[in-house]
Amino acid sequence: MESGKFTLVLGSQSPRRKQLLSWINIPFQILTADLDEVSTESDSEKIAVDIASQKAHAVFAKSSLVQNPFIISSDTIVVLNGVLYAKPADKDDARRILNELAGQTHEVITGVSFLFHDDNKKLHEHTFYDSTEVTFTEISQELMDRYIETGDSMDKAGAYGIQGPSLTFISKLNGSYSNVVGFPIDKILSELAIILGDDWRKNF
To answer: Does the pTM exceed 0.90?
Structure first.
């Protein structure tokens, strides 16, 4: 690597985020850190950004062997009427969550943090979020049973993943699809251009 260039680091082990980032055709490493995803913030957007920031700092602390790391971390939450829905604890919890979301329009918010050193070795952080509205149909008992048994809901906020069989009960999307997946790649690229310039690729 040329002196001064960044090493792109994805602070997530999510295969979905890995796939989305791979589409920009820039090599990257993956580093993760154990973290209790707890925030003292009260606003949904601030919670998502705060946890994404916590993840980025935790990963940065483990990146001493990476040359000039540029960390990208994110956190996704699902919100309906002010209630936050995290990953379900078990199948019964997944069923409860999906029943509450059924027939409703909820919000999916992903907070993102960029963490990196500038040329003077000063640590910089750039944070932002994206929001998408997702509308569910009413979910029949048969459809609910089939979906729960796939196991698709168990590792996802809101107990569903838009890229999977949950598409059978998603009727409308207002906003970024990749944001609902958990990594708003379109906005990430635009934010990279804001902080690194239109020719941001030359920095990696």
So the answer is: yes
